[in-house]
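Quick one:
INPUT:
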C-alpha cells in the first residue's frame, strides 16, 4: 500500500490532513473504514489506528493516527511548500488555533449534530441546547476574528497551517450557525473555500453516497453509534446533556474510543 488516508469526508480532522496533502501536491488515496459508526472496526483499520478513529494514515510501512500528528508528519516528510510559519511565535499561534478548533470548537458543532441530526434531544430541550450552542459559536467566532485581525490569513500573508486547521470546522458549523454575513471571518471563509485544496474536500462531501435512511432511528436502535470523547463529553455535561450521555450508555447507543488490544 502506498499513501492512504482512512477518511470520512465529513470529518474535519480528516479534511485537515487532506488539505495539507493537496497543498503540497502529494498524491494519495483515501477511503472509509469498514463498518465505521457501528462500534466495530476491521483489523487493517485497527492496525493503523487502535482507537478506531479517522483519520489514520498509511505511508508504506508507516502507520500514524491523530490528525495533528499526521499533519506534522506530512509537513516534515514533504517540506515544500511549507505550511507552518518559520517564526516561533507564529508557529505557536498556529498550533493554538489547531488545538482550540480540534477540541472546544468541534465539541460545539458535534453536539449540534447530535441534537439536530441524530435527535438525541427533541422539543424544548433540543431548542435550549441548540440556543446555548449558537451562543457559544458566536463567542468562538468573535475570538477567531480577534486572532485573524487585519491579516488576510490566519497564517499571516499566505494560506497555511492556521487556515487549514480552522476552515474544515467553520465550514462544518455553517450548516448550523456559521460566521455572520459581512464579517471578517466570513470574508476569510470565502477566500479559504476558493482554494483548490479546500474545494476538493468540499467535493468529497458532495460526492458521498448517503442512503435515504433515518439516521436518528438507527441511533435509537443502536445500529449507529456516535463516539463520545473528552471535549464532546465536556460539552454535554456542561450544556444540559448529562441525561443524554447516561441514556446512551444505558441503551448502548453511544460509543467511546476503541480500547487498545
Amino acid at each position: 500500500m502506498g499513501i492512504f488516508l482512512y477518511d470520512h469526508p465529513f470529518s474535519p480532522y480528516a479534511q485537515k490532513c487532506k488539505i495539507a496533502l493537496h497543498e503540497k501536491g502529494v498524491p494519495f488515496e483515501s477511503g472509509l473504514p469498514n463498518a465505521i459508526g457501528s462500534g466495530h472496526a476491521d483489523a487493517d483499520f485497527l492496525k493503523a489506528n487502535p482507537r478506531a478513529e479517522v483519520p489514520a494514515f498509511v505511508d508504506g510501512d508507516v502507520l500514524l493516527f491523530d490528525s495533528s500528528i499526521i499533519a506534522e508528519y506530512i509537513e516534515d516528510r514533504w517540506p515544500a511548500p511549507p505550511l507552518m510559519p518559520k517564526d516561533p511565535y507564529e508557529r505557536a499561534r498556529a498550533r493554538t488555533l489547531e488545538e482550540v478548533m480540534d477540541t472546544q470548537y468541534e465539541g460545539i458543532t458535534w453536539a449540534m449534530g447530535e441534537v439536530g441530526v441524530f435527535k438525541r434531544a427533541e422539543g424544548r430541550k433540543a431548542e435550549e441546547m441548540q440556543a446555548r450552542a449558537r451562543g457559544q459559536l458566536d463567542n468562538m467566532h468573535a475570538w477567531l476574528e480577534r486572532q485573524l485581525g487585519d491579516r488576510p490569513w490566519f497564517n499571516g500573508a499566505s494560506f497555511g497551517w492556521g487556515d487549514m486547521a480552522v476552515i474544515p470546522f467553520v465550514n462544518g458549523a455553517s450548516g448550523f450557525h456559521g460566521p455572520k454575513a459581512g464579517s471578517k471571518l466570513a470574508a476569510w471563509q470565502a477566500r479559504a473555500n476558493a482554494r483548490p485544496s479546500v474545494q476538493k474536500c468540499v467535493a468529497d462531501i458532495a460526492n458521498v453516497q448517503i442512503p435515504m435512511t433515518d439516521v436518528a432511528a438507527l441511533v435509537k436502535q443502536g445500529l449507529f453509534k456516535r463516539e463520545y470523547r473528552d471535549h464532546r463529553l465536556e460539552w454535554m455535561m456542561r450544556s444540559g446533556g448529562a441525561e443524554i450521555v447516561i441514556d446512551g450508555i444505558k441503551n448502548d447507543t453511544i460509543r467511546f474510543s476503541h480500547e487498545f488490544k
